[in-house]
Amino acid sequence: MLSELESSVIGKFPSDAVISLAQKMVQIDSQNPPGNEKCLADYMANLLKGFGLEVMEYDFKPNRPNVVALYKGRVSNRTLIFNGHLDTVPFGDLSKWSVHPLEGVIRNGRLYGRGSADMKSSIAAFTWAVKHLIDQGVDVNGNVLITLTSDEEDSCVGADDILKRGYSGTACIVGEPSHLQVIIAHKGFARFKLTTFGKLAHASAPDEGKNAIYKMAKAIIKLEQLGEEYKNLKGHPLLGHPTLSVGVIKGGSKDNVVPDVCEITVDRRLLPGESPEGVDKELRCELDKMVLEDPAFEYSLSLYNSLPASETDMSNPIVGLAKEAIKDLFGREPVVEGMPATTEMFHFVKSGIPTIVLGCGDIKVAHTADESILLEEIVYLTKIYMLIILRYLKPL
User: Fold this and answer.
1) Is the domain of 349 the same as that of 284?
2) Is residue 232 domain-shared with residue 268, that is, in the same domain?
3) Predicted pLDDT of residue 74
4) Contact, 103 vs 353, CB < 8 A?
5) HEC string of the chain?
6) Range of 178's domain?
7) Same domain, 234 and 105
8) Is residue 57 predicted with pLDDT exceeding 80?
9) 131 with 10, same domain?
10) Is the whole-model pTM more than 0.85?
11) Fewer CB within 10 Å of terminal CB in the chain, N or C?
12) CATH number of the domain that 343 lies in?
């Protein structure tokens, strides 16, 4: 049940304001690659300064800015972090969009554009939640720290850099799209390059060479079989079983040349407790079996990127607080779930900060043509964030 203060503050919230901010953010191009988050970072830094927050904007890699903004309440040992990434994936094939990805069109109760779901609307929600509490003169007992990162869609190390600079908190909410459900676990990933080797020859005399693409074709079938076998594993109660996918293939130089090299990328999603080193060993075991079956099969395998899975205990107070806020506002029991994608939650959990994912939008429409989000979800999320702040940093 909402208190009198909570009802008063939330009831005065101007919903059009947060929708306008989400729309403005969508209209600022921050595609990655190429990695042009600078304009959006500048915009958000200036906006947050105007709200009265202490703001620092800095490049953690050349021309890749992070924005850190602190709202100071009364002296307390509590700091609630809100985290979001500024970058989006590229637009893709524009012919598949019914609107331009940067137009920020609103129609039929939805905001359309790249980043509308992933995850500019959630950033707008926690930004405006803090702004509204300031406007209402709410004197909270503790601090709110907003961390906005670049290059999440590629390296996912912006949040790690912020934490290494000494910023911290006692709880964290990552605003990735969760459809207003509480996420307490996500998968990690390990990405490998697998190369098969052959021998160059003229295509008119293929037996004089060794076709690296043919060798890779057999390896891909083996990897597909391995991915199917994962489905028979017990798995994680919230995340299910691990997955494996081949994402990119490169091979050959000319149509009349037997190729001597073929390369693929392999994406293996990790469960809590799994490690990239363990997956490397697993893959090599399968590939070495192929060498025994075919001595002419030559390969190299290298790990080029990884992030572990992450999990926050269901009993942690921030989980219960988020669930209660949703129930008290909307009268429904929220679902606690896991997320198959990887998020910056990992960095905060690794630093000992209890963290959940709670955002607006559907992860299934992220990265797609005509990416969009329900306007009412943005408004609902802003109210949820306000209530969590009020209850975590209880006003005096």
Assistant:
1) no
2) yes
3) 86
4) no
5) CCCHHHHHHHHCCCHHHHHHHHHHHHCCCCECCCCCCHHHHHHHHHHHHHCCCEEEEEEEECCEEEEEEEEECCCCCCEEEEEEECCECCCCCHHHCCCCCCCCCEECCEEECCCHHHHHHHHHHHHHHHHHHHHCCCCCCCEEEEEEECCCCCCCCHHHHHHHCCCCCCEEEECCCCCCCEEEEECEEEEEEEEEECECEECCCHHHCECHHHHHHHHHHHHHHHHHHHCCCCCECCCECCEEEEEEEEECCCCCEECCEEEEEEEEEECCCCCHHHHHHHHHHHHHHHHHHCCCCEEEEEEEEEECCEECCCCCHHHHHHHHHHHHHHCCCCCEEEECCCCCHHHHHHCCCCEEECCCCCCCCCCCCCCEEEHHHHHHHHHHHHHHHHHHCCCC
6) 4-186+309-392
7) no
8) yes
9) yes
10) yes
11) N
12) 3.40.630.10
Query: Residue 396: is its pLDDT beyond 80?
Result: no
- What's the confidence (pLDDT) of residue 75? 80
Asked whether the predicted pLDDT for residue 395 surpasses 90, the reply is no
Last residue of a domain, one of 307, 340, 355: 307
pLDDT for the residue numbered 62: 94
Q: What percent of the chain has pLDDT over 70?
A: 100
Residues 115 and 253 in one domain: no
Domain count, the chain: 2
Nearest CA-CA partner of 351 in 177, 145, 72, 179: 145
Rounded average pLDDT over 261-290: 97
Cα–Cα distance measured from residue 24 to residue 106, given in angstroms and rounded to the nearest whole number? 12
Say if residue 242 is in the same domain as residue 382.
no
The per-residue pLDDT for 290 is 98
